[in-house]
């Protein structure tokens, strides 16, 4: 009898220990679960000196804001990502999966455990000076300008001769506001016209932007633009010889007396680079006849010019669309852009924003280029809420709103980055190619000679592995679990690899890239998360 009791007590004790182990394993920790999410989705803004009010780079600071974090992720407030992912998908989406949200909620509810910091990813570093840390080939700055915006907004243009002797192609652009507090937006173009000035020139009341080739734009929340620059997607914006760089700047009313010195940083392809495809940026969908009565909710579609290469909102050749950049002002509620076939039997989805937020705008690059066939009609639909229940309405009580350039006017102005279609464009993986392209501009932050680039991370079905600089010789990649045990080894003979993850369990892994002499060239962490 006594031995039976002892046996049962032993079993019970074992079960208790087992449940404790399982319970502990299921409790998310900062090191293994939460830091990877924050580093991938949040710290671009939430770092010391960033635009967000607190940092999420280190454990101690994150814990101090645990309740705010929990509330914002549960209610979809953070991270901000305007495009509807049920409509189209874009690269670098700041979107949390349901399992990521649950991990964060469970982490807070269970006392925000730290875990083993040795298993945490290396924290990202931010300079708070430039988004692209490389050295630009060309940097152009406007003359020091003092805002004259008193009771209305100011639009001013600066045309600055570049004196570039030969054709070059831009592969990355960053606009840096000199005074972010007063720079509402910036549009930068290249002017090749015969009427461009030969000396730096300033134009006041400048509402129509000069220049034939769009380079980039800046809006609240927008980032630098990096084009895919690796075959088969080697795209560039042309800088024709002896062009002028033109800035259009918008300063809001009340900013009078404040000084700005905005600049643009241009990163170019090498002079002898070949097979570069020209890419263009243009506001294809516009409507300047908005008239929204006070108290009304109204929907408008784009107007279509009857002539030109985009007559009736159609191209006569197929177009490869790389990115979308929709724009409206404060009372905008939703935007949808798409293209339809001549018979209206086929619809090409471009972008949909169901809850417009003026403070978060950007160039949204598709995961794969969207191909719009010839003679498809491009359509934009904007809805505006000019009621007192709209908390973003600049007027109380509401007043009739029309299309205009003031922040308190409205706009319908949707731009796209695109190129002429080539067979095979629909198969280009922009997600992977642009990830590698971006790495070219962060080399100064690397601490090792070689960099291993993993994407996506967290990974689901496939893991792409690139080495930078490329090493085209036989090496090997080892995959180890969280306890350091080798679970997979692959010999590679070039600088990139696509790894099938079907045989891997969800979890945290270390990826080691080794030479034939067993020297570790690079070591990175990855999360495999299939659900």
Provide a concise account of the structure shown.
The protein is 14% helix and 34% strand.
Polypeptide structure, described:
The protein is an alpha+beta fold and 531 residues long. It is 14% helix and 34% strand. It has helices at residues 2-26, 30-41, 59-64, 66-74, 98-109, 430-439, and strands at residues 138-141, 145-146, 154-161, 168-176, 185-191, 201-204, 213-218, 225-226, 229-230, 233-239, 244-251, 259-260, 263-268, 277-278, 280-286, 291-292, 297-301, 319-325, 332-340, 347-353, 364-372, 377-385, 401-402, 413-420, 451-455, 462-468, 475-480, 486-492, 496-500, 507-514, 520-528. Strands 1, 4, 8, 9, 10, 13 and 14 form a seven-stranded mixed sheet that branches. A five-stranded antiparallel sheet has the order 6-3-11-5-7, with no helix packed on it. A four-stranded antiparallel sheet has the order 15-24-18-21, covered by helices on one side. Strand 27 (475-480) and strand 28 (486-492) form a beta hairpin. Helix 2 (30-41) packs across helix 5 and helix 4 runs antiparallel to helix 5 (98-109). The two termini are 48 Å apart.
What is the number of strand segments? 31
Question: End-to-end distance, in Å?
Answer: 48 Å
Gyration radius over CA: 26 Å
Strand fraction: 25-35%
Could you outline the blueprint of secondary structure elements for this entry?
Layout: H1 2-26, H2 30-41, H3 59-64, H4 66-74, H5 98-109, E1 138-141, E2 145-146, E3 154-161, E4 168-176, E5 185-191, E6 201-204, E7 213-218, E8 225-226, E9 229-230, E10 233-239, E11 244-251, E12 259-260, E13 263-268, E14 277-278, E15 280-286, E16 291-292, E17 297-301, E18 319-325, E19 332-340, E20 347-353, E21 364-372, E22 377-385, E23 401-402, E24 413-420, H6 430-439, E25 451-455, E26 462-468, E27 475-480, E28 486-492, E29 496-500, E30 507-514, E31 520-528
Parallel strand pairs: 10-14
Antiparallel strand pairs: 1-13, 2-12, 3-6, 3-11, 4-8, 4-10, 4-13, 5-7, 5-11, 9-10, 15-24, 16-23, 17-22, 18-21, 18-24, 19-20, 19-22, 25-26, 26-29, 27-28, 27-30, 30-31
Helix pairs in contact: 2-5, 4-5
């Amino acid at each position: 009898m006594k031995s039976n009791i002892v046996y049962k007590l032993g079993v019970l004790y074992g079960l208790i220990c087992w449940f404790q182990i399982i319970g502990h394993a299921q409790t998310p920790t900062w090191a293994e679960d939460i830091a990877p999410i924050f580093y991938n989705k949040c710290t671009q803004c939430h770092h010391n000196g960033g635009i967000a009010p607190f940092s999420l780079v280190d454990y101690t600071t994150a814990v101090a804001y645990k309740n705010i974090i929990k509330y914002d992720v549960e209610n979809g407030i953070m991270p901000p990502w305007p495009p509807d992912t049920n409509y189209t998908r874009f690269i670098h989406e700041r979107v949390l999966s349901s399992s990521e949200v649950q991990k964060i909620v469970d982490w807070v509810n269970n006392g925000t455990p730290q875990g083993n910091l040795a298993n945490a990813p290396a924290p990202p570093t931010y300079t708070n000076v430039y988004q692209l840390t490389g050295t630009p080939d060309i940097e152009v700055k406007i003359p020091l300008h003092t805002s004259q915006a008193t009771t209305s907004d100011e639009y001013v243009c600066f045309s600055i001769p570049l004196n570039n002797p030969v054709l070059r192609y831009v592969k990355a652009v960053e606009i840096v506001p000199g005074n972010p507090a007063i720079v509402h937006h910036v549009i930068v173009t290249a002017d090749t016209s015969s009427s461009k000035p030969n000396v730096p020139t300033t134009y006041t009341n400048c509402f129509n932007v000069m220049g034939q080739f769009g380079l980039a734009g800046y809006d609240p929340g927008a980032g630098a633009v990096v084009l895919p620059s690796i075959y088969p997607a080697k795209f560039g914006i042309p800088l024709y010889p002896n062009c002028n760089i033109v800035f259009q700047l918008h300063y809001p009313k009340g900013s009078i007396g404040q000084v700005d010195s905005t600049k643009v940083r241009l990163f170019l392809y090498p002079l002898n680079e070949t097979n570069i495809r020209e890419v263009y940026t243009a506001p294809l969908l516009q409507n300047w006849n908005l008239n929204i009565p006070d108290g009304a909710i109204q929907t408008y579609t784009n107007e279509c010019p009857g002539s030109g290469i985009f007559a009736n909102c159609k191209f006569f050749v197929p177009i490869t669309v790389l990115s979308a950049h929709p724009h409206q002002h404060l009372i905008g509620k939703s935007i949808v852009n798409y293209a339809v076939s001549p018979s209206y039997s086929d619809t090409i989805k471009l972008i949909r924003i169901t809850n417009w937020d003026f403070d978060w705008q950007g160039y949204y690059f598709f995961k794969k280029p969207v191909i719009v066939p010839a003679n498809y009609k491009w359509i934009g639909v904007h809805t505006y809420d000019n009621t007192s229940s709209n908390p973003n309405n600049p007027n109380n009580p509401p007043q009739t709103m029309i299309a205009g350039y003031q922040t308190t006017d409205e706009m319908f102005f949707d731009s796209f980055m695109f190129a002429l279609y080539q067979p095979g464009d629909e198969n280009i993986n922009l997600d992977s190619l642009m990830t590698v392209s971006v790495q070219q501009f962060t080399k100064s932050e690397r601490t090792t000679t070689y960099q291993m680039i993993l994407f996506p991370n967290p990974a689901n079905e496939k893991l792409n592995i690139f080495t930078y600089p490329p090493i085209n010789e036989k090496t090997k990649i080892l995959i180890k679990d969280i306890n350091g045990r080798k679970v997979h080894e692959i010999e590679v003979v070039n600088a990139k690899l696509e790894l099938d993850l079907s045989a891997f369990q969800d979890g945290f892994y270390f990826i080691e890239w080794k030479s034939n002499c067993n020297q570790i060239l690079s070591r990175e962490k990855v999360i495999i998360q299939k659900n």
